[in-house]
């Protein structure tokens, strides 16, 4: 722990269920879905029942693919953030139309060879989002029109790696397909130039749950069921309805320093067990942390500065966020300040109905979370994921016509 922490005493400690209204029943169901055979809700790690053949993900729908479908994120991603060279009120319409065509080409078995995917699209998804500058050029009252504030450590992020106008994420169980599709789609976008790009990977997992670069289960407490996604993730109405607010943070992790802690110390930083992800307050791997549980001596079982406590939505009055990040590892290199670093960590991606869910949570992490001592932000931005599309409803058209 460092001296930077401020007490969170003044913050309201509403129980999660009080904050989320009826969401408690859904959260309780998360555990059922993960338990073997429980509930039958969670799709298996591979929808084909265990062979290596990837299962196609429908490209059309109310929501874009790559956020809630497939339920188990593909193993690899390739992400790019671009800048629009002549942003204006028509940019989202133009970008959306071009992106929609390119995504369709890359993900359709009939046309994917044109995008360079010669063996079929597999389980490829490509998701498109636009940055605050383009949204505000259309209407500054729309969701996604406001850039993120600066958080702790953000002032050291190079300007080129902050914000951005278009974000493209291609995900696939084939790393090559993800990279090829990213190149195809970004190459089709008019009046853009590349700002930064990142490839990511995920450990084997089940649903959104996988071990992160620190070796802990991650993606446990997230909305999954359609009603949870409606309540917490999808924008409910207006021209951006069925879109969502995406925050991307490239977070370098000092895994070496973290792993010098004894196992018990690591668990106290996270608030969950290292082996199976169960809360330090007791229960099974997918149970929620009990923020009130104490030892007979009166010590909090989920420590005051642990990440699971700090990030808990009850302190911020926020909705849940859908965390669906990827690990990255770019090896050792000399960073902007001349220090040699292992440039690896978490490409943190989270989707939420309101951007404030992320902002309030990150402010609280900056104040009280011991995990942030091991995190250096190296890129950051928030984006409006465009609503889903189909042949009759080109990507971005609901916004472009607003
Ligand atoms: C590299 C940085 C991070 C790592 C390694 C990390 C890891 C974890 C782990 C292991 C958990 C517990 C299991 C789970 O519920 O998924 C967790 C929970 C959570 N994290 Fe993070 N996290 C990171 C950054 C962030 C950031 C930047 C945010 C948002 C600002 C965030 C928000 C949350 C939330 C909301 C939970 C669930 C808390 C609950 O309700 O129990 N995390 N994270």
Please describe what this structure looks like.
By secondary structure, the chain is of the alpha+beta class. It has one domain. The chain has 11 helices and 12 strands. Strands 1, 2, 3, 4, 8, 9, 10, 11 and 12 form a 9-stranded antiparallel β-sheet that branches. Helix 3 runs antiparallel to helix 5. The chain is globular. The termini are far apart.
Summarize the structure.
This protein is an alpha+beta fold and 402 residues long. It has helices at residues 16-20, 23-34, 91-107, 132-138, 175-187, 226-232, 255-260, 263-270, 307-310, 355-368, 397-400, and strands at 76-84, 125-130, 166-172, 192-201, 205-206, 209-211, 217-218, 244-253, 322-323, 326-334, 340-352, 375-385.
List the helices and strands and how they pair.
Elements: H1 16-20, H2 23-34, E1 76-84, H3 91-107, E2 125-130, H4 132-138, E3 166-172, H5 175-187, E4 192-201, E5 205-206, E6 209-211, E7 217-218, H6 226-232, E8 244-253, H7 255-260, H8 263-270, H9 307-310, E9 322-323, E10 326-334, E11 340-352, H10 355-368, E12 375-385, H11 397-400
Antiparallel strand pairs: 1-3, 1-4, 2-3, 2-12, 5-6, 6-7, 8-11, 8-12, 9-11, 10-11
Helix pairs in contact: 3-5
Protoporphyrin IX containing FE binds next to strand 7, strand 8, helix 9, strand 11 and helix 10.
In total, the number of strands is 12
Q: Report the β-strand fraction as a percent range.
A: 15-25%
Tally of domains: 1
CA radius of gyration is: 21 Å
- Determine the mean pLDDT: 89
User: What gross morphology would you assign?
Assistant: globular
């Amino acid at each position: 722990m460092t001296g930077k922490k401020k007490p969170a005493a003044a913050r309201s400690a509403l129980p999660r269920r009080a904050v989320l209204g009826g969401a408690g029943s859904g959260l309780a169901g998360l555990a059922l879905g993960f338990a073997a055979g429980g509930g039958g809700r969670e799709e298996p790690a591979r929808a084909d029942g265990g062979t290596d053949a990837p299962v196609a993900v429908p490209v059309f729908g109310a929501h874009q693919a790559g956020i809630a479908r497939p339920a188990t994120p593909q193993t690899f991603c390739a992400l790019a953030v671009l800048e629009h060279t002549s942003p204006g009120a028509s940019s989202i319409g133009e970008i959306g139309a071009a992106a929609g065509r390119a995504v369709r080409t890359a993900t359709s078995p009939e046309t994917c060879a044109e995008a360079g995917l010669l063996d079929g699209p597999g389980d490829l998804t490509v998701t498109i989002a636009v940055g605050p500058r383009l949204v505000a050029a259309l209407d500054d009252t729309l969701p996604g029109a406001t850039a993120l504030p600066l958080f702790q450590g953000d002032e050291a992020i190079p300007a080129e790696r902050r914000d951005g106008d278009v974000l493209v994420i291609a995900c696939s169980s084939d790393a090559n397909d993800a990279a090829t599709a990213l190149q195809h789609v970004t190459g089709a976008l008019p009046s853009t130039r590349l700002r930064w790009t990142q490839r990511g990977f995920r450990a084997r997992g089940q649903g959104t749950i996988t071990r992160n670069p620190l070796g802990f289960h991650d993606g446990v407490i997230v909305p999954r069921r359609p009603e949870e996604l409606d309540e917490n993730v999808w924008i409910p109405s207006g021209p951006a309805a069925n879109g969502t607010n995406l925050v991307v943070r490239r977070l370098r992790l000092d895994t070496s320093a973290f792993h010098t802690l004894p196992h018990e110390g690591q668990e106290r930083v996270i608030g969950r067990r290292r082996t199976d992800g169960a809360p330090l307050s007791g229960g099974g791997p997918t149970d929620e942390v009990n923020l009130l549980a104490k030892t007979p001596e009166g010590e909090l079982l989920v420590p005051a500065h642990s990440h699971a406590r700090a990030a808990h939505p009850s302190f911020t009055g926020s909705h849940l966020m859908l965390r669906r990040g990827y690990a990255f590892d770019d090896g050792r290199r000399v960073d902007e300040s001349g220090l040699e670093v292992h440039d690896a960590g978490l490409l943190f991606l989270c989707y939420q109905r309101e951007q404030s869910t992320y902002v309030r949570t990150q402010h609280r992490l900056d104040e009280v979370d011991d995990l942030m001592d091991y995190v250096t932000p190296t890129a950051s931005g928030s984006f409006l994921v465009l609503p889903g599309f189909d042949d009759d409803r080109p990507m971005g058209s609901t916004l472009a016509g607003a």
